[in-house]
Amino acid sequence: MPSFIDGPSLRSLLRPSTNGRRSKVSDSGGGGGGGGGGGGGIFKMFKLMPMLSSGCKMVALLGRHNRALLADHATTVTLFGHRRGRVSLAIHEDTRAPPVFLIELPMLTSALHKEISSGVVKLALESDTRSARRRLVEEYVWAVYCNGRKAGYSIRRKEASDDERHVLRLLRGVSMGAGVLPAAPEKDGGVPAGPDGELTYVRARVERVVGSKDSEAFYMINPSEGGVRGDSNGDGSAPELSIFLVRMK
């Protein structure tokens, strides 16, 4: 069976709208924090990563709130992981609730950082399994591609690990941004503090586009201008982060 990377499923999600309408779009609103797009957005913050540790206390304080600081139920995407560990992907319809999709990707966080340095990251997840009773985000086994290159296979998590819960708790009040988080205490199952224990994250508000019951796409919203779907800064450039979920028929 050919991969959807070379097929019409992905191309249909990438094709720009000609009449201003999209199929089942979940509007996520504008964005708080994090800088502009087009090379000046969230990914640019990774160049300042050595200086971002000073923001850990602020993020930790935000995480203590009982309610998230988001004014609406924005769809958000979070990529996070220890510098020398694997990166995890979480998709939230509401950051006050557990993620609707959580998976540990078959790639190191350091490898993701290299892709981020290019300015554009496109993650494509392909599932060969099919169940009439499952939503697309409920499929378990996924082939993962990053910027067109196959990274391997992953299995969706039914429940977050202690370390993942620690990260998501700290970020409950964060709508958009990138930085370094304090590691979870060892007694709570976290990795010891230090070079291996540093947690980096990218969180972005996204526009969710449902092509069909077998295909969905998530396009990062420019925090300053709200650009989406292949026009992150109004000049025709691609959004910094795009994520595609496709189930093969």
Automatic annotation (TrEMBL):
Name of the protein in its database record: Protein MIZU-KUSSEI 1
Single GO biological process annotation from the record: hydrotropism
PANTHER family, A to Z: OS09G0463600 PROTEIN, PROTEIN MIZU-KUSSEI 1
Xref: NCBIfam families: A_thal_3588
Protein's organism: Zizania palustris
Region of interest: Disordered: 1-36
Record InterPro entries: MIZ1-like_pln
